[in-house]
Amino acid sequence: MAIKILTDSTSYIDESIREDLDIKVVSLSVEFDDITFKEMEIDNESFYKMMEEKGIPQSSQPPLGDLYSEMENIVKEGHDLVCVFLSSDMSGTYSSAHMAKNIVLEKYPNANIEIIDSRSNCMQLGFAAISAAIAAREGKTLKDIKEIVVKNIKRSRFLFIPDNLDYLQKGGRIGKASSIIGNLLKIIPILTVEDGVTTVFKKVRTKKNAIETMVKQTLQDIKDLGLGDIVVHHINCINEAKILAQQLKEVLNVDIKIQDIGPVIGLHVGPGAIGIAYYTKEDIR
Asked: Residue 101 and residue 282: Cα distance in Å, rounded?
């Protein structure tokens, strides 16, 4: 019997990696007034076109039944399970997962299930899940894997930049006046996730300067603490992402993967957003 890994769709792990490491995924959803769908069932281009027509939707956690089914499918085969989910301050997924675990344990009292709050999302969450899957493949114990995931979380950072402030304003993240003034002055916040919530890392004039500042911080962290892995994130701006990835590759001399961000996280920042997720060999925090 083995140790299996379960995460959620906001990890945005590349499908080939998920398949290679046998990482299972439960999907969050987006809800417009007249239609609801799982974010893994729609591509970004179609989603943002729909959002222009229908307005900004709500996001919702996976149904309890989906979490239960995924867990049961694993433990009924005799496997242990490590679950790594997006921040409990951003979604009820982590809480619902504990409810699902308790229901599973009623039927399978000898099951071993660990649930970890990644305190983030996107590939900062993804790297935590990947580190768990690699450790499981190497034959590490459940306790060891949990420690490895927690260590990865301490060593990771996610920096991202919206194209403008419109979606942050529409979603209630900033006021309308702040959005208008920010757009007029071309003030762009570099956002990050700390202590489980999205926060402003730094405010910079123009997106170009914001990207330069983000790259500088990334390279400084890697210079000081070493590089574990890195990915460029984007929302419907693949050409910008390719330029950023090439810029990082020239300095770091490693191939830089590019991964788009899906609807559940993307609806808050909008198309044109770009970012970097990475983890280092020593603790960042």
From this structure: 32
For residue 269, give both structure tokens. 């920042």
For residue 41, how many C-alpha atoms fall within 13 Å in the half-sphere facing its CB? 10
Residue 74 carries which side chain, given as an amino acid letter? Answer: I
Angle in degrees, CA 277, 161, 195, rounded to 5: 60
Helices (H), the chain: 15-21, 44-54, 64-75, 93-107, 122-137, 142-154, 166-170, 176-185, 207-225, 238-252, 263-269
CB count within 10 Å of CB 225 equals 17
Pairing status of strand 29-31 against strand 187-194: unpaired
How far is the first Cα of the chain from the last one, in angstroms, to the nearest whole number? 35
Query: Are the C-beta atoms of residues 182 and 201 closer than 8 Å to each other?
Result: no
Stated as kind and residue range, the H or E segment containing 274 is: strand 274-279
Per residue of the chain (285 residues), what is the pLDDT tens digit? 899 999 999 999 999 999 999 999 999 999 999 999 999 999 888 998 898 899 889 999 999 999 999 999 999 999 999 999 999 999 999 999 999 999 999 999 999 999 999 999 999 999 999 999 999 999 999 999 999 999 999 999 999 999 877 777 665 544 444 444 455 557 788 999 999 988 889 999 999 999 999 999 999 999 999 999 999 999 999 999 999 999 999 999 999 999 999 999 999 888 999 999 999 999 999
